[in-house]
C-alpha cells in the first residue's frame, strides 16, 4: 500500500495541530491514515487505500458510513431549514420521548454535545442533588476529558492523571478496582455519607470490554441505595449498542439512577445526554438549581440524525445483524489464536470485539489486571495481579501498537489505535467483510 499522501498530510498537520491530530488516540505511528471518505463498512484513505473499518468513528456509526435513505433525508431536511436556532424544536422532544420509551432508567433527559459534557453534567447533577462531593470511579474506566475523572491510583492514593488537573479533584474522586465488591464496600464503610455517586461503564468498554462479574452491578445498586449515593451508568459507548435499544442496563437487568449517552444517540453528529427519573433530572436549571447550559445542545441536525438512526434500528434487524457478526468475529479470532498466540484474551459483547495480547499464560481471569493496567501502569497489577494471584504483564500494548495493528492495516483491516480501545461492527458490515477479516487475522498468526 502507498501512504505518501497521508504521510505528507501528517507532516503538514504536525505544524498546526498538536501531535498532528484533534483527539490523542488518532495519532497512530509512524503516521495515521488520513481518511477521505466512508463506504458502507469501509473507509478509503487519501492515497485511495480501502480498509474494512472497525473503528467506526470510535462507536457512533451503528449503521455504517452510508446512512440509510430515511436517516440521510432527515439530516438533509434539517440542514435545509437552517443549522440551529438557540430555541426549542420538536425534534429534541421526539428524541427524548423515544429514549424514555426504551431505556429503563430514563424518564427525562438533558441533551448536551458530547460524552465528556454528559459525564461532567451527570457528576454535577449527582453532587447537586445529593449535596455530597465524592464520586467513586472504576480503575480502567473512562468518562471523557473531564477533571473529576482524570484521576488515577486507588482509594488510598488517588492522584490527578494529567498535568493541568488540580490535585484537589483527586481529593473528591475515589478509584476502585472494577468487579471487586470488597474494595468498594470498604470505601463505602469509610466514606459512605460523603459519596454523591458511583460512576461506572456497565462493562469496561475503554478497557477492551471487560464484563462485570455476576452480581457486581446488583451489589453496586444495593450499596448506593443503602447509602443514598446515586448509581450512574456511563453508556456513552454501550448505549444503543450493547443490549440494543434498552442499552446495557436492559441486558444486565440493573437500573441505574442516571445514565449518560453520546456516540450513537447523535447518529454520527455531536450529541450527548444525561437521563434519569424526573425527580433527579429536574434538578437541572431552569427546573431546578444545578446549573447546566449549552449553545449547541439539542442541535437539530444531530437530533434528527440520532432519532432516525434509532428508529431505523427499531424497525430493522440491525441488532441481530451486528451482534451475529460480532459473535462470529470473537469466536473466529479465538479459534485462530488459540494455539498460535503466546498470550491473549478476547473481549467484547454484542457488536464489540477485541483481541488483547497478554503476557504468556494470562487468561480471561486476568481481565481485572488489564483494567488495573489501563488506569495505573505503574501499579502492582503490572507485575503481579493482587486479585487473581496470576503473574501477568497485564496488556502487552507494544505488540498491538508496533506489530499487530500496522500489519493488519497493510492487509486492509482498520483497527483502533490502542489495544485497549474497543472495536465496533456496524449494520453495513457484511459476512464477506468478516470472512476477509478472519482470513487476515489467520495470515498474521501464521
Ligand atoms: N464515556 C465513555 C464510556 C466513553 O467511551 C467516552 C469516549 O469514548 C466518553 C465518555 C467521552 O465521550 P466524548 O469523546 O464524546 O467526549
UniProtKB/TrEMBL annotation:
It is an enzyme of class 5 (isomerase). One of its GO terms (molecular function) is glutamate-1-semialdehyde 2,1-aminomutase activity. It is found in: Cytoplasm. Pathway: Porphyrin-containing compound metabolism; protoporphyrin-IX biosynthesis; 5-aminolevulinate from L-glutamyl-tRNA(Glu): step 2/2. Keywords: Aminotransferase, Cytoplasm, Isomerase, Porphyrin biosynthesis, Pyridoxal phosphate, Transferase. GO terms for cellular component: cytoplasm. It catalyses: (S)-4-amino-5-oxopentanoate = 5-aminolevulinate. Belongs to the class-III pyridoxal-phosphate-dependent aminotransferase family. HemL subfamily. This is Glutamate-1-semialdehyde 2,1-aminomutase. The lineage of its organism: Archaea, Methanobacteriati, Methanobacteriota, Stenosarchaea group, Halobacteria.
Amino acid at each position: 500500500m502507498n501512504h505518501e499522501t497521508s504521510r505528507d498530510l501528517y507532516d503538514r498537520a504536525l505544524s498546526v495541530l498538536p501531535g498532528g491530530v484533534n483527539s490523542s488516540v488518532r495519532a497512530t505511528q509512524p503516521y495515521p491514515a488520513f481518511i477521505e471518505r466512508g463506504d458502507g463498512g469501509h473507509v478509503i484513505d487519501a492515497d485511495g487505500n480501502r480498509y474494512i473499518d472497525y473503528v467506526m468513528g470510535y462507536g457512533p456509526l451503528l449503521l455504517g458510513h452510508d446512512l440509510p435513505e430515511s436517516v440521510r433525508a432527515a439530516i438533509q431536511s434539517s440542514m435545509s431549514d437552517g443549522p440551529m436556532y438557540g430555541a426549542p424544536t420538536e425534534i429534541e422532544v421526539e428524541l427524548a420521548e423515544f429514549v424514555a420509551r426504551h431505556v429503563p432508567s430514563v424518564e427525562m433527559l438533558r441533551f448536551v454535545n458530547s460524552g465528556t459534557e454528559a459525564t461532567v453534567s451527570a457528576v454535577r447533577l449527582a453532587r447537586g442533588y445529593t449535596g455530597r462531593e465524592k464520586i467513586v470511579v472504576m480503575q480502567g474506566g473512562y468518562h471523557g476529558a473531564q477533571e473529576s475523572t482524570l484521576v488515577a491510583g486507588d482509594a488510598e492514593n488517588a492522584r490527578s492523571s494529567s498535568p493541568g488537573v488540580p490535585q484537589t479533584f483527586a481529593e473528591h474522586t475515589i478509584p476502585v478496582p472494577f468487579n471487586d465488591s470488597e474494595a468498594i464496600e470498604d470505601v463505602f464503610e469509610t466514606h459512605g455519607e460523603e459519596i454523591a455517586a458511583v460512576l461506572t461503564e456497565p462493562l469496561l468498554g475503554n478497557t477492551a470490554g471487560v464484563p462485570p462479574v455476576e452480581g457486581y452491578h446488583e451489589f453496586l445498586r444495593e450499596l448506593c441505595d443503602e447509602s443514598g449515593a446515586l448509581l450512574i451508568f456511563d453508556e456513552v459507548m454501550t448505549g444503543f449498542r450493547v443490549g440494543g435499544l434498552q442499552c446495557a442496563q436492559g441486558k444486565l437487568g440493573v437500573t441505574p439512577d442516571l445514565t449518560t449517552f453520546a456516540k450513537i444517540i447523535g447518529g454520527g453528529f455531536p450529541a450527548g445526554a444525561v437521563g434519569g427519573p424526573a425527580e433527579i433530572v429536574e434538578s437541572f436549571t431552569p427546573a431546578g438549581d444545578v446549573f447546566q447550559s449549552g449553545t449547541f445542545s439539542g442541535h437539530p441536525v444531530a437530533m434528527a440524525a440520532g432519532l432516525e438512526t434509532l428508529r431505523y434500528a427499531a424497525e430493522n434487524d440491525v441488532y441481530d445483524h451486528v451482534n451475529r457478526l460480532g459473535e462470529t468475529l470473537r469466536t473466529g479470532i479465538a479459534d485462530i489464536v488459540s494455539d498460535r498466540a503466546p498470550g491473549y484474551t478476547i473481549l467484547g459483547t454484542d457488536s464489540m470485539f477485541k483481541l488483547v495480547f497478554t503476557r504468556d499464560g494470562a487468561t480471561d481471569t486476568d481481565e481485572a489486571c488489564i483494567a488495573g493496567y489501563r488506569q495505573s501502569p505503574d501499579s502492582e497489577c503490572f507485575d503481579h495481579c493482587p486479585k487473581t494471584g496470576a503473574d501477568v504483564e497485564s496488556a502487552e500494548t507494544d505488540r498491538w501498537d508496533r506489530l499487530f495493528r500496522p500489519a493488519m492495516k497493510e492487509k486492509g483491516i482498520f483497527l483502533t489505535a490502542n489495544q485497549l480501545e474497543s472495536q465496533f461492527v456496524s449494520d453495513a458490515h457484511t459476512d464477506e467483510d468478516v470472512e476477509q477479516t478472519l482470513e487476515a487475522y489467520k495470515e498474521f498468526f501464521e
